[in-house]
Amino acid sequence: MKSPDVNDWTQALPGLGERARQRVVDRSIGDFIRELRSLDEEQVQGILAYQRQHKVRFGEAAVALKYATQNDVLWALSQQFHYPYAPEEGRAGLDAELVAAIDPFSDQAEVLRDVRSQLVMGVLSSDAPRRALAIVSPDIGDGKTFFVANLGVTFSQLEGRTLIVDADMRTPRLHQLFGVEGPGGLSGILAGRTDAGVIRQVPALPNLYVLPVGTVPPNPLELVQRPAFALLMRELCGKFDHVLVDTPAACHGADARVIAAHCGAALTLGRRGRSRLAAIRTLLAQMAKAQVQSAGVMINEQ
Predict the structure, then answer these.
(1) pTM score, two decimals?
(2) 10-27: per-residue pLDDT in tens?
(3) DSSP symbols for the chain
(4) For residues 162 and 100, is the Cβ–Cβ distance under 8 A?
(5) 145, 164, 231, 218: which is closest to 187 by C-alpha?
(6) The pLDDT of residue 19
(7) Residue 5 to residues 115, 136, 196, 211, 295: CA-CA distances in angstroms?
(8) Backbone phi, then psi, for 179, in 5-degree steps?
C-alpha cells in the first residue's frame, strides 16, 4: 500500500518559518500592541511621551493611558519570546476548556507544562525512537480529551510543529474545542475518500495543527486496524515534531490499545474518586501486552 502524503491533507495556511520567526524575535512589544489595538500615530506618540515622562516601559504606558490591557502586554511578550497563546481578540472558535491557550499563566497550565517537560525528557525525548503519544483512559468522562487538547497547546509553544489527532471515532470532541468543524477528517482518510485540507492549523496558535475525526463511522475499530492507519501514523511522525492522539475510552473496546500500538507510546489517565484501580491496571497490562511504551499514569483531580 502506498504511504499517504500528509501534504495533500494540510491546508495552505501560513506558518512560522525561520525568517518569520526571526522577524517575530526582532520586533518590539510596541509593534505588537500597536497592531493588536490598531493604534494610530497620534496614540503611539502619546504613549511614547508618557513613557519618557514617567520612565516606564511602552506596555506600562499603554495600559496607563487605557490604550491596552495588561493581558495585551502579556500577549505581546509571548509573541516576542515566541510563546504563542490566544489573545482575547483571537479566541473565536476556541472553547473555554483550552486553558493552556486562554489562560497560559494559570496553575492548570503550569501543571500541563510540567507534564510536557517530563514527556520531553522521557518517552518523547530526542534520543528515543520517533513516536506519537496516545492518551488513553478506562472510562468516558475521565477528562482525556481536555487533557490531550491542552497538552497539545503546551507542546505547540515549543519549537517545531505539533499535531493533535482525534482518533476517538466514537465520541469525538476535539473539533468542537478548536472550532475546526467540517466533514473531512481521519475517518475519511482511512476509508480512502477524503478531500484535501483535513489537517487544520489553529489560527491563534501558529504551530498547532488538528486532524479531526470528520464523519463518525460505523466501524471505528476496523478502520484503525487497517494498514492505512499504521502508514498514516508513520507519515505524520515524519512530518510533525510532536504528535498527540486522542483515543476512545477503553470501556468501548479494543480501539485504544490498537491505536496506542501504532503510536508507540501511551499515557494513561484516570479520574480521582471515579476510576477504579483495577481498571487502570488492566489498561496498563493491555498496553504492555501490545508492546506500547508507557509514559506513566496521570490522575485527573478535576
Answers:
(1) 0.79
(2) 543 334 344 334 444 467
(3) -PPP-GGGTB-------HHHHHHHHHS-HHHHHHHHHT--HHHHHHHHHHHHHHT--HHHHHHHTTSS-HHHHHHHHHHHTT-----GGG-TT--TT-HHHH-TTSHHHHHHHHHHHHHHTTTTSTTSPP-EEEEE-SSTTSSHHHHHHHHHHHHHTSSS-EEEEE---SS--HHHHHT---S-SHHHHHHT---S--BEE-TTSTTEEEE---SPPS-HHHHHTSHHHHHHHHHHHHH-SEEEEE---GGG-SHHHHHHHHHEEEEEEEETTTS-HHHHHHHHHHHHHTTPEEEEEEEE--
(4) no
(5) 218
(6) 36
(7) 31, 27, 11, 14, 29
(8) 65, 45
- Enter the C-alpha cell of residue 256: 485504544
Asked whether the beta carbons of 28 and 20 are under 8 A apart, the reply is: no
Contact criterion met (CB below 8 Å) for 137 and 144:
yes
Task: Record the cell numbers describing residue 210, joined without a space.
Answer: 488538528
Residue (of 211, 185, 199, 189) closest to 10 by Cα position: 199
Residue 302: count other Cβ atoms within 10 Å of its Cβ.
Answer: 8
**Grid coordinates in use for 103?**
489562560
C-alpha cell at 277: 484501580
User: Looking at residue 211, what is its pLDDT?
Assistant: 96
What is the SS3 string spanning 164-221?
Answer: EEECCCCCCCHHHHHCCCCCCCHHHHHHCCCCCCCEEECCCCCCEEEECCCCCCCCHH
CA 127 to chain centroid: 22
Reading the block at residue 80, the C-alpha cell is 516576542
* pLDDT tens-digit map of 159-193: 889 999 999 999 999 999 998 877 789 999 999 88
Contact 228, 1 (CB under 8 A): yes
Sign of CA dihedral 231, 216, 183, 160: negative
